[in-house]
Amino acid sequence: MNWGVSYWGKFVDGLFRLFSTLGICWVLCLSTHVTAQVGINTTDPQQALHIAHSEIWSPLGRMRVESLNSPNNPFNGGDADGDGNWANDLYPLYVDENGDFTLQYTPTYNSGEIDALNDTELPTSTVYLDPLDVNGNESTDVATYTFTVNRAALMEVKYALSFDVYANPAKDKITDNLARRIITVIKVSGDPRGYAPAGTCYSSGSNSSVAGTLYLSSSAFVSLPSAGTYTITLSGIVASNIKSASSGGNPSEETYVEFATGDDFIFIRLY
Fold first, then answer.
1. CA distance 206 to 210
2. How many CB atoms sit inside 10 A of residue 194's CB?
3. What is residue 79's DSSP assignment?
4. Same structural domain, 34 and 87
5. Which of 105, 129, 158 is the last residue in one of the domains?
6. Residues in contact with 244: Cβ distance below 8 Å, sequence separation at least 6, in sequence order
7. What's the pTM value of the predicted model, to 2 decimals?
8. Over the stretch 206-236, which tens digit does the pLDDT of each residue have?
9. Which CATH number does the domain housing residue 156 bear?
10. C-alpha closest to that of 156 among 103, 101, 218
11. At residue 254, what are phi and psi to the nearest 5 degrees?
């Protein structure tokens, strides 16, 4: 839009009168080009709206949106630590699909206080390492999540996955005092790498050992290179030492692991 000089004169004069009434010292620069630029405290605006810094009055060059402050916005926690210093209580500002500023952010998935995974409803939440397994390694995909992005994105994923360890599917205790490795990892479709790995070793040498739920947790940032549909898989792995063939007996250490037996947590966020 290209306004005539007389219209711009009236417009600028009106703005000067308005800001003079408010007692604000400012400089406004309006271009008469098709895409007008507005400068506050500068005569050379570099964007459609350019608020420049001022050495005379330090607040100039900053912008305040009162609909985002603590009295007007429930997502602004104000002086959260109560030390009287608002500069160390900061809250992330986001832009929604309409270009509106907001403090509210909804992650792609957040189990929150709810148990994310129920082993009785997961058909592949168990791993059995058979004593005749020659590789000493078995795995299962515990849970999957699928979502679509319309651009390249960065995904943040966090999890806490529970598990119980036994010698066999009959849930006998492990008593051979040999270690088993239990590992969890995140896999992303189209990417051979494993993300957010976590692992521990378990061993027991007595029938008096106490069985109970254990946890593995980790987090990672994963680059999603382009628009498309991605599947995120949380996998569990059980491994043991492999005996040489000449030693006889079973090549692997028999192990049975049930995943998601406790209160599990999953969090996924896209940037």
1. 9
2. 16
3. S
4. no
5. 105
6. none
7. 0.73
8. 888 877 899 999 999 999 999 999 999 999 9
9. 2.60.120
10. 218
11. -60, 130
